[in-house]
Amino acid sequence: MKKQEEDKAAEEAKKLKSVKKHESDAKAKAEEEAEKKKQAEKDAKNVAEAEKERLADIEAKKKADIEADKEKERLQKTKLEEAQKLEREKKEKYEAEAKAEQEAEKAAKDKKDAQAKALAEMEAIEAAKKKHKKLQMN
């Protein structure tokens, strides 16, 4: 009987040990699952943060591109305005030179006309003097 009790006690101890091992395994598995879940949440949070940063970078690049386009447009406008200003100055210079040339030609013509008039007057005076001398001699 003692042997049966001992066997029974050993069997009970074996069952208890098996139950404890099963509980320990279940607890370890639950902890492992909890750790995996915690790691998955951490990974998801990191992925979400990385996506948020990626979207922020894309937005910043878009803004930088818009600013670069505005600056490029402003520079082109400035370049165009300067080219127009140079063209205007060139035209004004050409017109001023043409006007100065016309005025010089007119002045030369006026001088020539004045010289011709003076010469004609001198010739008229000389002719009058000769005529007067001729009359006096007669």
Can you tell me about this structure?
The chain is rod-shaped, with a radius of gyration of 58 Å. The chain is mainly α. The model has no long low-confidence stretch (mean pLDDT 92). It contains one helix and no strands.
Give the helix proportion (percent range): over 70%
Mean pLDDT: 92
Largest sheet: none
Order of H and E elements = H
Number of strands: 0
| Beta-strand content bin | under 5%
With helices defined by DSSP (H or I, 4 residues minimum), what is the helix count?
1
Looking at the structure, what is the overall shape? Answer: rod-shaped
**What class, by secondary structure content?**
mainly alpha
Radius of gyration computed on alpha carbons: 58 Å
Region (Disordered): 1-115
Keywords:
rod-shaped, 138 residues, 1 helix, mainly alpha
Layout of secondary structure:
Elements: H1 2-137
Brief write-up:
This protein has 138 residues and is mainly α. It is built from 1 helix and no strands. The chain starts with a helix and ends with a helix.
